[in-house]
Amino acid sequence: MKNNVVALASGVLFAVGLATSGMTQPSKVLGFLDFAGDWDPSLAFVMVGAIAVHFVAMRWAAGASAPLCADRFQIPPKRDVDASLVAGAALFGVGWGLAGYCPGPAVTSVGALSPITLTFVASMLAGMLLFAALERARASGMQRAASVTHGRMRSGEIS
Questions:
Q1: In terms of residue numbers, what domain contains 40?
Q2: pLDDT tens digits, residue range 85-103?
Q3: Which residues of 49-68 are buried (b: 16+ CB within 10 A; e: fewer)?
């Protein structure tokens, strides 16, 4: 229960920060990306603030034995830059540049019931579901292929 309360509080704090900084407005993001036109540097200041908070949190975490609301830190084991990471980052960047939204501000803006925001969030969710289905199919196919290969090796078909 404590973890859920902390997660909810963190999400609310994040949403309030996005709304306060104006980052729920696609025009702010698109203005930041418009170097040739009416450039708006405010997103850079928000990014610097976020980096500063993250820096302090990571310094604290480096010296802590455990997080405040869990038994241990959960650090992703994979740190490689691979095609999947690059493709995902590219899709994220293209979507962000075209729509002016990334997932956090888009979800925060759903409450405004703007058709553009609702379309973006629905498309984002559809993409997430499609990705999950493709990953399950890929994993299942790899599992079947490994099983068939293992069975052939046991029967002597493959040497």
A1: 2-79
A2: 899 899 888 888 888 888 8
A3: eeeeeeeeeeeeeeeeeeee
